[in-house]
Structures are given as C-alpha cells and as structure tokens.
Amino acid sequence: MTLAELLPSTGCSTEPVLEEGLWPDGTRLAGADLVIGGLPATQLAARFGTPCQVLDELTVRSRARQFVRALPEAEVVFAGKSLPCPEVYRWMAQEGLSLDVSSAGELALARAATVPASRIIMHGNVKTAEDLKAALEYGVSRIVVDSFDEIAQLGALARHGQQVMIRVTPGVDAHTHAAIATGVEDQKFGFSLASGAALEAILRVVEQPSLRLAGLHCHIGSQVRHVASYEETVRRMVGLIASCGVRLEQLDLGGGFCAPYLAGESGFDLAGFAHRIRVALNYECAVHRVPVPKVLIEPGRSIVANAGVTLYRVCTVKQGVSRTFVAVDGGMSDNPRPALYGAKYAVRLVGRGGRRRPVTVVGRHCEAGDVLAEDVLLPADVHAGDLLAVPATGAYHHALASNYNQVCRPPIIAVRDGVARPIVRRETEEDLLRRYV
Length: 437
Ligand code: LLP
Prior knowledge:
By secondary structure, the protein is of the alpha/beta class. It folds into 2 domains: 3-56 and 305-433, Beta Barrel (Lyase, Ornithine Decarboxylase, Chain A, domain 1); 57-303, TIM Barrel, CATH 3.20.20. Helix content is 30%, strand content 24%. The protein is built from 13 helices and 21 strands. The strands form 3 sheets. Strands 4, 14, 15, 16, 17, 18, 19, 20 and 21 form a 9-stranded mixed beta sheet that branches. α5 packs parallel to α6 (129-138) and α9 (227-244) runs parallel beside α10 (270-288). The longest helix is centred in the middle third of the chain and has 19 residues, at 270-288. The protein is globular, with a radius of gyration of 23 Å. The relative contact order is 0.17. The model is unreliable at 1-13 (pLDDT under 50). Residues 79, 81-82, 100, 123, 180, 219, 222, 254-257, 298-302, 337, 341, 395-396, 400 line the site of ligand LLP.
C-alpha cells in the first residue's frame, strides 16, 4: 500500500504536532503559524524575505553549554566549519568554548569575532603556506598537522615552541556516510595508526626544534550515532600514546556527534558519551600506566543543526507522472546536502493546514538532482505563495552554500526572545558582480 492510500485512514487533516527534537528549543505552533525564538515564521518571512535561514540563539547557546556541563574536565572546541559566522563564533566564546578553524578564511572570521588566539586550533589536510602563515601570525594555540610535508613546512616557518597536535587515523568505522567517514584507513586525512605513519609523525615533530608536541588528534566522522565508536577510538589512541615513548598531554577526539533530521530520530547520547569516554580513558591509561591526558572534543553539527530553520516560498506546483513537485525559491545552492549525502529533511507548511498528501519538494536550480525532500506530507492544495519551513538546517547549510545559477545566498536571521536581527545579510547581485573583472 502506498503512503497516499494510507492517508485517508490516518485522518491527517491538519498539520500534526511538532516533531520532537528537530526544531529550535521553545518552537511552538500558534494556530497554523510556527513561532521560533518568539517570532511567527510568517512574520519573519514577510520581513526578511525567502529563502531565509532562521537561527535560534538560545538553542545554540544551550547546546554549547550542554557539552561544557557534560564534560567539565574537557576543552570543548566549536567546529567553526559547521556554521562559519563571526556572531556565532562570539556566542561560542562567550559560552566558554574554544574554536577550530580549517583555513585562513575561517581564521579571519574568528579574528573578526575577536576570539583569542589562545582558544583557536587550526586543522586541515591541506594547509597552504598562507593558511600556516595566518595561523602563526595570529598565534593560534595549536596547529593540527596532517602530513609529513606539513611537519617540515611548519617546522621551518614556526617560531620556537609552536604547539602542534598530530592528526591520527585510528582505523575506526563510525558507520556514517562514506563522504563524511574520516576514521577509516585509506582516506586522505591524518596519519595511519596501523601503518606506523602516526608514530613516525610523532618522532618527526619531536625532531623539529621550533615545534612542541601537545598531543594527538583524531576525528572519526560526522553524524556518528554510536558511542562505541568513540570508545574504540579512545582505546586505540591511548595505546599509541603509551607506545610512542613521548609524554603527550592532550587527546582530541574530534566531533561528529549526530543530530536528528527526521521525526523519530534521536539526538546524540551526550551523557552516555561523557560517562563511557571517561571510563574508557581512565581504564586504558591505568592499564598502560600513562597519565590521563586532557580531552578535547569538537562538536559542530550537534550544537547548531537543530537551532536552524530554513523558510522557503513555494513558487510553483507541478504534477509529474507519479508524483507532485512543489518547487521553492531556494534549493541546492542553500542546501546541497541531499545531493551530496542523500540527506533527508522534514518539511512543514506554515500558515494554514489541510488534509495532506505526499509531495516532492524541489529547488529552483538547473539539475534534476536538485531535490530538497521526497515524500513529505503537505496539504493537498499546496500552491504558489505558500510558506514552507525546514528544520535542522543550522549546520553545513550556510557553510556549503553556493551561487549556482548565480542565485544569491540567503541571510541568517538570529532570533531570541522575540527579537530578530540579521547576522549574515542576504547576498545581492552587486555582491555577485563585485568578483567579475
Ligand atoms: N573536527 C574536525 C576535524 C572535523 O573535520 C569536523 C567536521 C568536526 C570536528 C565537526 O564535526 P561535526 O560535529 O559537525 O559532525 N559537510 C558535511 C559534514 C562534514 C564534516 C567535516 N568535518 C555535512 O553536511 O554533513
């Protein structure tokens, strides 16, 4: 039986209650409207236009605080690539988080946000000479080296005592999409633990008089659900710390903690993670007779994903042979994640209800693959001018956005206690033209 056939019997005549965990904290229904950060989505769309990303400041801050509270002994580092924006970096610093950047560009945003250098870590499997120089010039506290070439290059550029960490590939499968699985062997990130490259990297860093080895880093992937993958990572990393014969004070376990995108999906078990990581770390360190290193973690998605909601305006509805296409004023230029990772999203029509049926929500771009969500239930009479809201769009949306078809990128509107303010303004054609010579 198809979903459409099932519908009459389920009696879905109006929009159901809000899916738990997908929307920013405190989001509620007011009639058919959706109130985010104390403001009706219909008003936000009318005032700021569509497409538009709404970001709830208190949700971002509260998720950041949850990490700090769950692991008070750890250094919590916000993964700046998940939502590159000076205002968000500022919130994170105010909440006591450090920041990781993966390019001179992200570092420039961090500087604009006046994040102190002492709280910045630089990553990247490729850091150009410009990236490294920018990091050294600002004096970032740690640089995570990712190749033998980089160790030599940084050794030559750095002033005495630059702290570095070594990115290790621990060979742990995080059970996530291949494009975002970074802990397994034979991919471009880090030094393999199994092949001995990680040990060799430790020795090479120690040989560089200008570098000081602060510890080891790893990042097994993104949208990771199982705490067991991190436990296994701890075991392997402590094994390396014990066998390398060098005192290593810091162990960075990276980020990757999952966020819910669809109804029924649960968020990351942070309390379970904190407990099990602590137990595994203490046990392994005791077995290997090494001091317990300071732990670092680098959450990105789990802090910002569910704080974001994207608002789109329906532009046209078209009946295909077997499905109905609801086309909106955005698409893969503001959300390439369905095309890149097969990501799935929930969609809700805002402002009115009605008996629902499954439709396919597509974007405005010149590709058949520009699909935002398949088989989502919207009122059967969905039509041009309707407003759609898509939750869980706070992470890697602004970051991955493009100008495909020379479509201008949407703004980010921060909402808090009934006040809305743009923290990224809408891109204009003037912005587009500025680059052309
Ligand atoms: N640390 C390092 C070294 C990373 O490379 C990443 C993400 C993180 C931390 C944060 O991971 P998170 O907690 O946000 O999962 N564009 C993809 C995700 C790429 C993740 C890249 N690295 C997506 O949209 O799913």
